[in-house]
Structures
1.
Amino acid sequence: MARFNNHRILITGAGAGIGALMAEEFAKQGAEVIVTARRIAAAREVADRIKTAGGKAHAYVLDVSKLASIAKFRDKLHEEVGPITALINNAGVVFGGEFEQVELEQHLNTFRINTEGLMATTHAFLNDLIQAKQGYLVNIASASAFVGLPYGSTYAASKWAVVGFSESIRLELDVRKIKNVDVTTVCPSYISTGMFDGVKTPLLTPMLTPEKVVKSIIRGMLKKDSFVIEPPIAKSTELLKAALPRKIWDEVAYRIGVSTSMYSWKGKK
Ligand SMILES: NC(=O)c1ccc[n+]([C@@H]2O[C@H](COP(=O)([O-])OP(=O)(O)OC[C@H]3O[C@@H](n4cnc5c(N)ncnc54)[C@H](OP(=O)(O)O)[C@@H]3O)[C@@H](O)[C@H]2O)c1
């Protein structure tokens, strides 16, 4: 299937996890993929796999926490490859634990990467998407953008901010009558990539596979969905929160295991 023929898709944090899998899937579907990662070796490994399978890929270093480097990277990419038509803001980190026991720098780094890095990358590349015949902006948030997440407060906060940003950009493009750029905000619950190793998944919220999430993201993009929420039951969170008195919702979140899910978080080694 060549649903992304004529697309040049940049993915941040694409050296591992769902970023790497998206890169391979987009390439299979005809896209030229810009695989970016903090380490060039990780980006090259994914780009090489794509090229060996007959796809088109380029590997670049992009550390989204180095905010000032992002516009320079855009200029270099324009010179060496050209403008992009789709941006997948995927890079992310999490540091779980009791709030005051986690180093302040790790909390701040979470915000710098998950939120500021995503905004700076969008700032650098939005004009490319506007100039494209069909542009896509995909922001990977999280189902924790709809709830409070004990032991993961700055992670949840960074993703709440991503949802607010992503929705605002989508509406801004609409108000500006820019119809050729579709914005999709992705909110999955826990995925088995290692980032959340050790968590206890809440009731009725099974651990998602990277394959399932990537399939949903691509389907959502093609359907021009403004939100992709996985699993579907996570869509009821906002409804329940609005309908129930706060104390009852707090009790529900505790009893179904949302509020305690991060207690046993270990993350990637
Ligand atoms: N896993 C889940 O349960 C889950 C649930 C909801 C949402 N998400 C979100 O999904 C996205 C992908 O996560 P994942 O599950 O695929 O985990 P992952 O395998 O850890 O992927 C995260 C990627 O971000 C990269 N990254 C970290 N800091 C970076 C930086 N400063 N600059 C550029 N890249 C950086 C990582 O690179 P390194 O390998 O160099 O660290 C890694 O490739 C993240 O935004 C995450 O918050 C994940």
2.
Amino acid sequence: MVAIVVDGKTIEAEEGANLLQVCLENGIYIPNLCFLKEMEHPTGSCRMCLVEIDGEDKPVTSCMRRVQDGMVVRTDTEQVRHLQRIDFQLLMSAHHMDCKNCLSNKHCELKKIAKHLGVRLKATKFEELGRDLAVLKHPLFDLLPARCILCRKCLFICQQANGEPLLRLVRKGYESVIEAACEGQDPEELPCKFCMACVKGCPVSAIVPYSTYELEKSA
Ligand code: SF4
Ligand code: SF4
Ligand code: FES
């Protein structure tokens, strides 16, 4: 075990442990949207988990850092908050908010982050992109690309659960969407194991159970 200091608090942790995970386990909340503790190589795609580390000239994503003995970390500096607020507002400018119809409404990670950062949920600084992206169909669920925040968690979860990625990221920038790699195939021939792990793991309910197929099968 080694000792690090986060926001003035001394924490003991395994050398090489994931810095974000160590902070979360020790009651220090750092906003995060694309990280799962099972990830050996986090993607760092949301940029919400920024922190300052002594000796480094700019904030870094804590999910991509490993604990080192003597590390001194600050999670709430002016620069960290400034960058997090910009990143969050940019992300929200591309997120179709439809809270009353959203399964995440009662445990919404975006609302938690907005509150933590002291910003409004809906972007005011950036123009809303209003991505007009069609719902994608899978026999068991609908993918709602306009709600998707492109955190890529579902890709990892699917790979973990099935040993191969049955979802994929296609297109670029704000046109990017997650789609089922098996889209259009006969349901009986899909490699999908129907585990629904991606549905459970999506932080914004952009993958929504589509019960018709189950009902049809059980009829
Ligand atoms: S994830 Fe759902 S509940 Fe949260 S802000 Fe978006 S639409 Fe609203
Ligand atoms: S569908 Fe959900 S889990 Fe997958 S990238 Fe979009 S927001 Fe993330
Ligand atoms: S949680 Fe670290 S970049 Fe998303």
